[in-house]
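Checklist before submission:
- one chain only
- standard amino acids only
- sequence pasted in full

Submission:
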Amino acid sequence: MSQAPRLRCVRAGKVPVAVASVRASKLGWHEDGRARAGWTTPGLRLRAFVSSYPRALVKSRGFTLIEVMVALAVLAIALAAAVRAVGEQARAQQILREGSQARWVAANLIAQTRLNEPFPLPGTREGQSRMAGRTWRWRLVVSDTADGDIRRLDAEVFPGDASVDSKQPLMTLTGFASGRDRTE
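Returned file contents:
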């Protein structure tokens, strides 16, 4: 006995509203898929989808376990890379913030020195400053230049927990002070 084609009832070619799996002859269709004369259904357009394979032999739609595992592995690698990139960006932002604050401390130190002593004496000074809720250690080295009326001011800034004897300051800023405006 031959299997009748399966029919789907579709409203104007959009979303299926009913699926019929009955013999085509009962709905006004010939066995070869042609519509019977004189048969109509108001508001519905019928389309016949003929399947010559039994339902058991038709490949089901979906993902296999291997496909799902590969997709999850790719997703895990991508997420791990994203987390690492975010961590590196956070660390870079912290380094930039510390560097900016240390530069401000050094600039303030040179400005205060020039305001307090228009022509500072050569030598080394050490101290602490407070900025942005942190304590910063600094060392100011005043030295002579080839021109006797100009002094060089090298401000080195260290984090509050580091010693000023450390060889690696967080920021070094150089400024100059002129002695031409002094009155003696």
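Reviewer check: Confidence is low (pLDDT under 50) at residues 8-26, 39-51.
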